[in-house]
Prior knowledge:
The protein is α/β, with parallel strands linked by helices. The chain has five helices and eight strands; from the N terminus they run E-H-E-E-E-E-E-H-E-H-H-E-H.
Amino acid sequence: MKAAIALVSGRPNSGKTACLLAVIARASARGLTCSGLVSHGLWNNGRKTGYMLEAVATGERRLLAESHPLDEADLTLDRFHFSGAGIAWGNAVLRHSRGIVVVDEFGALEAEEGGLWPGIDYLLHNHRGSLLIAVRPALRRELLARIAAIRLL
């Protein structure tokens, strides 16, 4: 049996992460196992300055990206510099996730098969539980096409 997949779609800062956190809280209150990743925006003076990944199961956090150059930045997209170590950690968390797995989010890096795509791809091929994936409207069709292609395998 393949995983049940639900998408949470919305523009930047529209509440996708808040929605995911609410689902996690309700599922956990019912005794269900939740894991995966949520991505918290880092803000300074009303401006988003980066992203922090949080492992749902443990609460552990790692820096994903900042608007200023990072010593270990492996790539830059738009105005953000992404941590290769943060990306690797996030993919490892996804590969070891169980139960209801949350992925926040399928973005531009993942559309180019970078970022958290290896972990998402692993889940789409191997996870048998529920997946809840955040995605921006502009990338929803791309993600749905990938899901459909994997399900046809």
